[in-house]
Structures are given as structure tokens and as C-alpha cells.
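As promised in the previous annual report, we have extended the structural survey to additional targets. Below is the entry for BTB domain-containing protein.
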Amino acid sequence: MTFQSRMDAERIIINIGGVRHETYMSTLKKIPATRLSRLTTNSPNYDPVLNEYYFDRNPFVFSMILNYYRTSKLHYPLGVCAPLFEEELQFFGLDPNQVEPCCWMVYSQHRDTQDTLAVIEGLDLDCEPQSPEEVAKKFGWEDDYNQGTLSAWQRFKPQVWSLFDEPWSSKEAWLLSILSILFVVVSIICFCMKTHPYMRVPEITLNASEFNHNPFDISKKSTSRAHPYFFYIEFVCNIWFTVELTCRLLFSPNMKKFCEDPINIIDFIATVSFYIDWALETVFSETNRDTVEFFSIIRILRLFKLTQHSSGLKILIQTFKASAQELLLLVFFVLLGIVVFAALIFYAERVENNPDNQFESIPVGLWWALITICTIGYGDQVPRTYLGMLVGSVCALMGVLTIALPVPVIVSNFARFYSHAQARSKLPKKRRRILQPHEIKPIIGRSTTAALLNTINPRNTTTTAACLVMETDEPRTANFTAEEDHMIKVVQSALNLDEGTEGYNTAAFFLHCREWNVDEAVQFYLNAQEPTQSYSFPAENAMNLGQQIFHQYEMTFVKDITIGEGESVQPNSTIVKTWQVLNSGTHDWPENFKLKFLDGDDMGFQKTINLPAVEIGKYLNINLDIHTGPEQKIYCSRWRIHDNMELPFGDMIWCVIPVETGGIMNITQMLASTAVSGNRPTSGDTFNTQIINLPSQNMRENDNENMDM
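The corresponding C-alpha cell record, generated without further manual editing, is:
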């Protein structure tokens, strides 16, 4: 059995939120390129004292994930919210689309729910007054609001808009909405009532012989017109509609979006049609009024304006949009049935001698088939033969089945939208606190942090990091794992940042800038607030600088050469600790890169080691002289390589030194001497490091076989 096979068969312990799981390394390697398949003792999640890997994740979900490694089948656990399960899979580097078919329907329901909530969010069903921040965001004035430079027009415009379009914003807006509804109702009533015979007056003509002195005997009138009072009522209503439409257009947050709204288009055409009718009647008095009034029928469509004041009507319209596919399918089958049964009834009535045949052609049968499939049955056309009656019976049955099948889908969509809308209305409204202008401290141009912030957001040279992060609309923890969320809260507490979303995002920003190192993120923030150095960067190189900071260099930790796992040293000893790292990036490391001590036990060693230039793909041995203390314990510290900009990159390097009486000091020293034989730097050397070329893979495999023998 080779050394590698023994390592794969080794049992490991994974602690998930306090629940310990045991498995084999070979089991975790069944799914490569995942977080668990790359576990090593150099991982920051490894606890050398307890000999386990700790992850602050959901232990119930992890049992399903571990079972996936064992059986290669991923099942969805019941009783767990699907987004939580998806987040856990993404954290461990697993594909959520690998869920088994038996669980896929239940697992994918959350996506339908998220789509439904997104649609409801766009319906603007909120009936609560908006905060000044939300109003500024709606009109696109966030920057002016944050800087406190809103003009008088910018303050006045949202107030007028809310009066006409947001009835819930104030009592005045509510009264205006009631008035608008009354004008719509009165206008529709007038449009309908003026067609009633008792609400019309005869036309006055010059032919006195044809004049009827009985105003109530309108049956003999050749022409008549609506009572003049209806014109005056409609004139007043349309003046209101004109004023309302003009104000809503001038004070709308987005004129283009306002003009594209179908309700506003209907309102505009209905209002303009009244003035066109009035002009035609005034200029061309002999114009056929029936033809003119026919085009005014669009005024009835003003009823759709009532949907702006009813959440139920908005949801009903959205239901029909969501059910468009089913409705189109229904129309297709109805049209298919109409054509088929129209042809069948035409020929069925011609088979027998039928003098009362009412189906003279197939187009006549189309009307009969439509009325029969819709289960209306006017009775104006009926089959007379037995074969025709049979065709009519089958047509009616097919109509019941065709129309009834899509109805449950439409009802289900309406129930889904309505239930989610009701549940959403009961949720508390979450708002973010915005920094006021007097809270903003200008820092740009005074430190490396300021230069970096200016690189990311060059359009505003007076924006602080907190203000920059505040502009994001993403909800907190939306893109962070549980580990990262915990680190963000630690930084947020250490710096006494605001407990709201913007303080959270500020901590996340500085952690991201410092490769998620808590100590460096805190120092990075303090440097931004109280800078001690000044740096200047050309504006044209800002984007290149940002790419260099975040993407240029990489480092991979390879192994401990001296004082490896299972070795210990004696108290009060001076020893040499040697690590091996690899330049795994796409750029050579220039000189003056440094390995820096971050935190942990102070063992009297140097805090910074200068590194030589390292080419791409080359290995580097880094030596560290340390002195153990008198106390017997496990000394731990963390190290990180920093570039010339003092930004960390690459893997974390852990220095773990077990100190106990009787430790194998001699063996450790011999290993250290062997690893750097002939290449240990003297006291006058600048770099306490060594660049080496490792033996080939075949040589390492032969060495492992010799060890087994």
C-alpha cells in the first residue's frame, strides 16, 4: 500500500456547526474541484488541537451534502428553505442542478416563488408613505439627496406627483383620488345615459311641416340629439381629466415610462376624442353624429384607470399576463373546434333531405360552432337531422372540455399572486439609513485607501467608503457565505459601525479590499479615516491600478519542510521553520515582496521577511528563525505575503509549533539543515529564502515506493 493510498484512506473529522461528521478522504475526492475535496492541514478551517475541520454552516443540510459524496445522489431535505439549501451547496462548491429528479419539483418551487415576488414587487402595491430616501431614488436624485443639494423644484415635484398618483401618501392625495374616481364614474354614466330615448331631444330643422310638437313622442322623429346638459357635464369632466393628465405628465418621475403606460395612453386618447368631437360638431354641423360618437366609445376604457387604485385588479391583470400561454392554447383549440364542427354540421345537414336546412355554407356554420362550443346556444340556427344533432352534441361536449381545462391554471395563478401579495403586505417594510452630508468625511487623495476608493468610484471625488457602499441596492448577506457574514459582523462591531445595512456593507467593502483579513481590514479602515501618508495616482491609470491590486499575483502554499505534523520542540530552543510556496500566478514576483506576521503567538521572531524575485511556476523556500518560550503548549501564528502596495495575496501560512519537554529538537534541526543544505543565508544576506526546483513527479513517486518497502 503506497503512502498516497494510505492518506486517501485516512479518516477525517468535519465539524459542522458543532456536529461532528467522520468520513474518508477518498470519499471526499469522489467529487473533485470542491471545497471538501481540497481539504488539507494547511486550510484555515483546520484545528490542529482537535484534529478536525470546522465550518460554521448548517449541520442538517450538511448531512445531505456528505451523503452526496458517499452515494453520488443529491437529495433535497424536507423542512429546509430551498435558498438556504442552495446557498450551502454553493459554499461547498456543488452544483444545485444535480438534485435528483424525485426531489426536483419540491426543490424548484422556490424559484417560482421568487419569480412571483419579483412580479409583485413591480406592481407597486405598497400603500405606505415613502421615505425621503425612497422618493429621491425614484426620481433619480440619490446623489443630490445624499449631499443635501436638492433644489426647490426637486422638493416640490415629488409632492405634486404624490398628490395625483399616490393616494396613500396623504389625506389630500386620498381626496383627489376620490374626486378622480367620481369624475370617471360620472363621465361613463353620461356617455351611457345620453343614448336613452328619454334623454334625447329632437333635431330642430327648417321644415316646419315635419316638426312634431309632442316632445315625448320621439318614435316619429327622424333624428335626435343628446340633451345639452350632458355636453356641459362631459365638458367639466374633461377639463378635470385634462388638468390631471397634464400634471401627472409634467411631474412624473420618468416621462418616457409614463408615456408608455397603456392606462395613460387610453386616458390621453379618450380626453382628446372629446375635443375632436366638439370641434367636428362645431365646424361641420351636418356631420353624421352617429359616426362621430362611435369613435368616442374609447371613453369607456377609462374604467381601466380604476385599476390604479385596486390591488386586486392589478393582480387580476397580471394573472392574465402570466396565463397568456394557456389562454393562447385555449384560443387555438377553440378555433380548431370551430372550423372542424362548422364543416361537419354543413355536410351532416346535407346528407338527408332537409327543406329547413339553415346551414347554407360553412361560414354560416362557423357562427353556430362558436356559440355551441362556448355553451351559449342562441337557438337562431339549429340542426334538423339526426346526424346534425349528433354533431351538435359532440360539439357541445368538446366545448365544455376545451374551456374547462385551462380554467384551473388561471385560477391557480391568481391564487398564487394574490396569496403572495397579501403575505408581502403584512411584512414589515425594511429601510436603510443614509449618511447625512455632515457625516461624510472627505478622504480622497490622502492615502492608499483613498486612491483605491477613487479608482472604484471616480465619478465622485468626495465620496467616502461608507457612502460608496451605501449606493448598492443589494440586500445584506445576499452574496456572502456564513463565514464571510461572521467576519463582516466582527469588523462591524470592532469599528463601532452603524448596525444597519450601510455599516454592514462598509465592513464588507474593507474586508474585500484586504482579502477577507479581519485585522488588516480594521487597519485599512482606520488608515482611511486617519491617514498618515499621502499617495497620488494618475487618473488615467486608475483602472489599471485596480486590476493590478486585485488580480495580478497568486501564491499557493505547498508544504512544511521543517517541524511538520507530529513533530515537537523543546522549551527555550532556537529553531528554524521552513515553508515551501509556489508562484502560481501569471506574473513574476518582483523584489521587496514581504512575508508578514499577522496575529497569534509572539515567539521572538522577526515580524517581516523580505523575499527575492520569483519567476512564474518557481518554488520558494522561506526560512524563519524563532525562539520557543518556557511554556509547554502549541504556539500558533498566521503569516501572509504582501506585495509592494502592502496588499496581501495568496494562501494563508500557518505556523504551528508544539512545545513540550523531550521534543524532537535534534530531528527538527537536521530536517531544517537538510532542506536548506548549503543554502542557508548568512547574517549578511538580505533574503532568508531559497528558490528551488522540485524533483519530477516520477522521482517523488519512486521515493514513496521506497518508503513503503
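The chain is about 50% helix and 10% strand. The chain has a mean pLDDT of 74. These points will be discussed at the next consortium meeting with the crystallography subgroup.
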